[in-house]
Each structure stands twice: as C-alpha cells, then as structure tokens.
Amino acid sequence: MGVPGSNLVVCAPVASGPPTLKAMYEAHVDWLVQTLGRLGVRPNDRDDLAHDVFVVVHRKFTTFDSMRPVRPWLFGIAYRVVSEDRRRARHRYEVTASSGVDWADPRSGLEAQAAARHRLALVRAVLDRMSYMRRAVFIMHEFDGFSVPDIAEAVGVPLNTSYSHLRRARQEFEVAALELGLIEEDDNG
User: Fold this and answer.
1) Is 37 exposed, middle or buried (0-12, 13-18, 19+ CB in 10 A)?
2) HSE of 34, CA atoms in CB hemisphere, 13 A
C-alpha cells in the first residue's frame, strides 16, 4: 500500500492483523536487492546480504510500527548490514562485467542500450567516489524519494547532519559528474 504523493510503501495488514514477515519480504526484496547494488554491494553478494537484512528484520519485526513506511526502516537495516560487511573487509575489490541491474529499455536499439549502460556505469562511478554515509543519504533522497527526517531516522544521525550530508553529496555528485562527462557545465550559473 503506497503513501499518497510518494513512493513510500506501508505494509498492508493481513486480514485484520499486522503485516507478516513473509508479506514484507515478498513486497520489498526486489527493491532491497536493487538498493544494495546502489550502496555498492557486488552483484554476487546482493542476495546474501539481502538475506542478512531479513534475518535482522525477523529479529526486530516486533518493534516495527506498521503505521510507518517500511522502506526507510528496511533501508536503515540494510545500511547497517552493509556497513558491518564492509568493516569485516572479508571481500576483495572486484570489477564485474555487469552491474546486475539493466536500466536500458530492451525495446530500444542496441546503440541506445549501450548508451544507457554507459550512463549507468558513470553514475555508479560517481557514487563510488562518495563516502558511504553521503552515498546512502543521496540514494535515499534522490533515487528513492525519502524525506530527510525519514533518512535521519533510518541511518541514525541527527536531522541537521542528514541535511548536511545531502548537501555535500549533491555537491560531490555534481563535481564528479562534470569530471566524468555525465553532465555538462551550465554556462548560465
């Protein structure tokens, strides 16, 4: 069930009770795997980390307020799971041939698909330059449309700090995107 005017999703209650873990999983696992990719998780690790996120969700499920949007809560858990995975440093840097996400329209021509994949690779390169916290705040706000108060709660930082991270992330994104040729400099300002 969506929240009017946004892309936030609230878990629909089953019958007359609260949402079930299974319903939450089925409704959000695809979004979660895509979000893990945006956070820089390698394609081969996304399913495992999504599983780890839902293990935490299972443990914390009784604390979830079903009147609140699910995705900021899930993002907060995913953010912490990915942070812990990075701290463990159990993986090595690996360049993969595919990002695991294909945003190119299969109905478009090969040239258009190649251009879309190239733009996606450039966006990922720009995101890779950001600190993990700024990247998370930027993704939540710019890609997923979450409000800054929801972001602050999800990642566990003060509201003004979240606004600061978003401002700095936008600046970093613009500078890096200009350097990589993803966007062109505006002559008017």
Assistant:
1) middle
2) 12
CATH of span 1-97:
1.10.1740
Other C-beta atoms lying within 10 Å of the C-beta of residue 45? 17
Give the model's confidence band at 180: pLDDT under 50 very low, under 70 low, under 90 confident, else very high: confident
Reduced to 3 states, what is the DSSP secondary structure of residue 2?
A: strand
The answer to whether domain 104-189 has CATH 1.10.10.10 is yes
Closest CA to 18 of 86, 67, 53, 77: 67
Note the pLDDT tens digit of each residue in 106-128: 556 777 777 778 888 888 888 88
- Single out the residue of 57, 71, 52 nearest to residue 154, CA to CA: 71
Query: What residues does each domain of the chain span?
Result: 1-97, 104-189
